[in-house]
Write a structure and sequence with these properties.
27 helices; 5 domains; Penicillin binding protein transpeptidase fold; binds zinc ion
Length: 730
């Protein structure tokens, strides 16, 4: 190749030579000799053979290159064209859509559900000859090629819809003449394989419409808040103008530029006879209302995030985010929203009542973890007792501010909420609700020094039954029970009931000095109303692919961890907590269904808990700071957590179901003070026992003055509570 500079040099040499005749003559002579020699060479057969071989070599290289090109195109499977990445949709237990997750936010819809206006507008702009060509438009290509040659680079595509589809689907988007050729070839293949209607349907569902929207349906929903079937001519013209350069023509980018573009589209529709003048005039007068860019929302967000994580875990990235899955979950959208509102309201109320720093006004974060905040936080988890299906899951106050799910992953001290497990271990070991333990100042020698459990009100009640001790959340009795039963045995039961966090086998373990998540506590408590069975909590019921094939189906699992009798006795004792113990705020708050539960408050008022259940639903709530610190003086679970639980549970639909009473339970009148068989002298209460544990000894009598630790009024209430349980009143 002779470039400009070399050409110029040669010209200068030639001119110089003509100026000097001797040089010119020498030059002619030289060239003549070269010519003769060249001619001689050509006549030499050996050389001819070599040249022929060379040409053949070049030809075969060309053929190989063409072969590669052909193979490259053949390798692309036009059958893959209908297979588009689609958003997955998740639904609540009643079939209401909860959320979507996607790589490309796309919902594929049939052509029949796309406005004719939009199809016409696209054809007018992109390919008005669509129904007549066979995949490519030679006139268009020639025009584009001419424009590109003049510009010195590729500016115009001259592409038909089919070519654009080929490019979008199977080829990368880089502009080159080589790719252009393959695109033409593919377009032909696509036209042979599919009808025009199919090609159009693939096209409008596949292309990118800016702002993260793929396909006509998501673009319509995203920009106008309506389905693609409902687009007016004006809407359609606006949308059709976007796709050539979505980042430039998106209404979210610059609305007036987008509207000018809409005029171009309307003109094109007029020009190609795809709209009447009167229609276009009307479309120009249409008001344009664009939906704002979707903001991150807190509504349903913790539940949606947990669902996404679970689907990802089950089916992997590609299926989850591009598979167009239908995910049927256990969440109850109505109860989920109720729970979110209840958590938000209660935290605001606590901040006001205890005069805490207003949220967001706390000092700069001291927590390194960006997922955690300085604000007072709360969590709620609610699930079905029998199936373990999670109905509501609130992981914190604001998902936008902190994605950390405190319900699932927040490991905290459970405090007195752990006592239910202590007493369940005691009953399993043969103690009864009527077993009497002295609530008195006690001390234990430990490695760290002397340990003296105290009660929250710093007083002691004297001799009390386990039932009373649990109802009043008496610490010294829980610690002594732990010593009688054996702390190791309690740890073993806690593990069987699903607590996986650290549970140090120390004297204070019965007071909840280990660690558990709200999820674990709720699951553990579900054992009591579920006749001793521990179920595996579920968030997903079923996952189908976009064609309806079932990819996953939940299998409810469970196993027995307590005898049905012990589970019933615990339920009965925990009912007392709700009816007249530390959880009585439930009744004061107006919740009337049969219910049982336990409060929890940890050292220095760092955590406030309430885990409670009806015969069908178990719900736990937690309140505290991410970086554990005192919420406020006297910030008991009863004050902070119980009202939150009650506000949520009151929204449950009424149910006539009662706690199940196993056949092996007997009811016996006993002396309220000693827990032994009552004599006429005794204050009598009714108590439940397993058949093997009914007391046989008569109360030895009350020679000493009656202890006033258990006032008569309370024993009376006790009877009433038990009768409630039997008759199922309320
Ligand atoms: Zn007695």
């Amino acid at each position: 190749m002779i470039d400009a500079e070399a050409g110029h040099t040669l010209a200068v040499v030639a001119v110089e030579m003509t100026k000097t005749p001797s040089m010119y003559t020498k030059w002619r002579e030289f060239m003549r000799k070269q010519g003769i020699e060249l001619w001689a060479c050509v006549r030499d057969k050996q050389v001819i053979a070599r040249v022929t071989a060379g040409l053949a070599g070049i030809a075969s290289i060309l053929i190989i290159m063409l072969g590669i090109a052909d193979w490259q195109v053949r390798r692309l499977d036009v059958n893959l064209i209908p297979d588009m990445e689609e958003s997955s949709h998740a639904y609540d237990r009643n079939g209401k859509e909860l959320c979507q997750f996607w790589k490309q936010k796309r919902t594929v819809v049939p052509l029949s559900r796309i406005s004719k206006h939009l199809l016409d507008a696209i054809l007018a702009m992109e390919d008005h000859d669509f129904y007549n060509h066979h995949g490519y438009d030679l006139a268009g290509i020639t025009r584009a090629a001419w424009a590109n040659l003049r510009a010195g680079k590729i500016e115009q595509g001259g592409s038909t819809l089919t070519q654009q589809l080929a490019k979008n689907t199977l080829l990368n988007a880089r502009q080159s003449y080589w790719r252009k050729l393959r695109e033409l070839w593919l377009a032909r293949k696509i036209e042979k394989r599919y009808t025009k209607a199919q090609i159009l349907e693939f096209y409008v569902n596949r292309i990118y419409w800016g702002s993260g929207f793929y396909g006509a349906e998501e673009a319509s929903q995203g920009y106008f808040g309506k389905s693609a079937s409902e687009l007016s001519l004006g809407d359609a013209a606006l949308l059709a103008g976007i796709t050539a350069a979505p980042s430039i023509y998106s209404p979210h980018a610059k609305l007036d530029r987008c509207l000018k573009r809409r005029e171009v589209v309307l003109d094109a529709m007029l020009r190609h006879g795809l709209a009447k003048t009167s229609e276009v005039e009307a479309a120009r007068r249409e008001p344009v209302v664009i939906q704002p860019r979707p903001e991150q929302t807190n509504r349903l967000a913790y539940a949606a995030d947990a669902i996404r994580a679970e689907v990802l875990d089950t089916l992997g990235y590609q299926k989850t985010f591009a598979g167009g899955l239908r995910v049927y979950t256990t969440i109850d959208a109505k109860m989920q929203l109720t729970a979110e509102e209840a958590v938000g309201n209660q935290l605001s109320r606590i901040e006001k009542e205890f005069n805490l720093l207003k949220r967001g006004t706390a000092a700069a974060p001291t927590v390194a973890d960006h997922n955690k905040t300085n604000d007072l936080q709360g969590a709620l988890l609610s699930m079905s007792v029998q199936t373990g299906e999670i109905m509501a899951l609130v992981g914190g106050r604001s998902f936008v501010e902190s994605k950390f799910n405190r319900a699932l992953y927040g490991k905290r001290q459970p405090g007195s909420a752990f006592k239910a497990i202590v007493y369940a271990a005691a009953l399993s070991a043969g103690m009864t609700p009527a077993t009497v333990i002295e609530d008195e100042p006690i001390e234990f020698q430990t490695l760290e020094g002397i340990y003296r459990p105290t009660n929250s009100d710093q007083t002691f009640s004297g001799a009390v039954t386990l039932r009373t001790a649990l109802r009043k959340s008496i610490n010294s009795v829980a610690v002594q029970t732990g010593q009688v039963v054996g702390v190791d045995r309690i740890v073993t039961l806690a593990r069987a009931m699903g607590l996986q966090g650290p549970l140090p086998a120390v004297i204070s373990l019965p007071l909840g000095s280990g660690e558990a998540t709200l999820f674990e506590m709720v699951r553990a408590y579900s054992v009591f109303p579920n006749e001793g069975r521990l179920v595996h909590p579920l968030l997903l019921r079923r996952i189908e692919d976009k064609h309806g094939a079932v990819l996953y189906e939940a299998k409810p699992e469970g196993h027995q961890v307590l005898s049905p009798e012990v589970a019933f006795l615990m339920t009965s004792m925990l009912m007392d907590v709700v009816n007249r113990g530390t959880g009585s705020g439930v009744r004061a708050g107006g919740f009337q269904m049969p219910a049982a539960g336990k409060t929890g408050t940890t050292n220095d008022y760092r955590d406030a808990w309430f885990i409670g259940f009806t015969p069908e639903v178990v719900t736990g709530v937690w309140v505290g700071y991410d970086q554990p610190r005192e919420i406020a003086r006297r910030a008991y679970g009863a004050r902070l957590a119980v009202p939150l639980w009650t506000a949520y549970m009151k929204k449950l639909p009424p149910s006539p179901k009662q706690f199940p009473r196993p056949a092996g339970i007997v009811e016996q009148l006993i002396c309220a003070e000693t827990g032994l068989l009552a004599t006429p002298e005794c204050d009598v209460v009714s108590e439940y026992f397993t058949q093997s544990n009914v007391p046989h000894d008569l109360c030895p009598g009350h020679h000493l003055q009656d202890s006033d630790e258990i006032p008569h009024s309370q024993t009376g209430q006790n009877l009433e509570g038990d009768s409630q349980m039997r008759s199922g009143a309320h």
